[in-house]
Design brief:
Radius of gyration: 21 Å
Largest sheet: 7 strands, mixed
CATH class of the largest domain: Alpha Beta
Number of domains: 3
Structural class: alpha/beta
Order of helices and strands: EHEEEEEEHEEEEHEHEHEHEHEHEE
Mean pLDDT: 92
Distance between the termini: 38 Å
Strand content: 25-35%
CATH topology of the largest domain: Rossmann fold
Number of strands: 18
CATH architecture of the largest domain: 3-Layer(aba) Sandwich
Oligomer: single chain
Number of helices: 8
Helix content: 10-25%
Strand order of the largest sheet: 14-13-12-15-16-18-17
Amino acid sequence: MRSLAVVVAKAEAEAVRQELLAQGVLRKGAAIGREGDAVYLPVTTAAIRHPTVEHEFLEAFTPIRSYKDVTRVPSSLRGSLPTSFDIVGDIAIVRIPDELREYEAEIAGAILRANRSIKVVAADDGVKGPFRVRAVRVLAGPDRTETKHREFGLLYAVDVAKAYFSPRLGSERMRVADQISPGEVVVDMFSGVGPYAILIARRRNPAVVHAFDANPDAFRYLEENVRRNRADLVRPRLGDGIALLALVDRPHRIIVDYPSGPDPAFQAALLRILPGGTLHYYAILESVEREDRGRALVDAARSIGRDAKITAMRVVHGWSPTQSLFVFDVHVV
């Protein structure tokens, strides 16, 4: 999302943040930006004593604070109120603990009252099915699940009940895009509505970005978003990513974002990646599992006569009380 911002040195950032917060002009729903020693504080107005500029901010995993002040639940259950939710466009998607199910309408109404930019609140009942789609139920606002989400100046249409989209991956998508060199052939095996592929095509200079998805609903939005964002270097194809990977030129880079069970896709990617190429592999793991998974990825490459090295391994975001989404950057020779 684009917003007015106050730019300050890192050493002054907290004091200025507190000042803007006290004035009620610090923008909610935008993550504070950092570039080197400069800190960008999003604000709602230029009518303040600090000079302002325009800056691109992440709109993603938003901490919940004020809604709790207007939520009427028994005091014994207040500690179970959700502390954060995902915002996709103007839809808030929140996980309601079982002990609060009878109060979910009250919670949803409070979120609407506390966040003017949110028009719909939906319950997240988990990612289900072969297409990894969230099971959502509208709790408050109009009975719709379609919206438009802006990220890094690009606009994505998505129906959160028909295609998976996570705003929490915004910074991860940019991290991957920043690694793309001019002329690369890139494959996104499970592209969804296209946020990786379109960002890479618009911000970098690849030869082509092949974007695959087997979900017809996601694919429809993928094609729409490619047109909407004029991402002419993206080649969308409907179908199984593993099968389609064998039909395109061998790529320099493959994104394997299917964390519910990506190992067959990783094996297929190993066979097709060019020497010196990189696989971005995602997995939902316990923290104690990550070292073993990294070794297993290297061993999988060696089992087919290729060498591999893990060049980066990091937590992308939390997934459950004990699990996180990890990404492994795997360099293959």
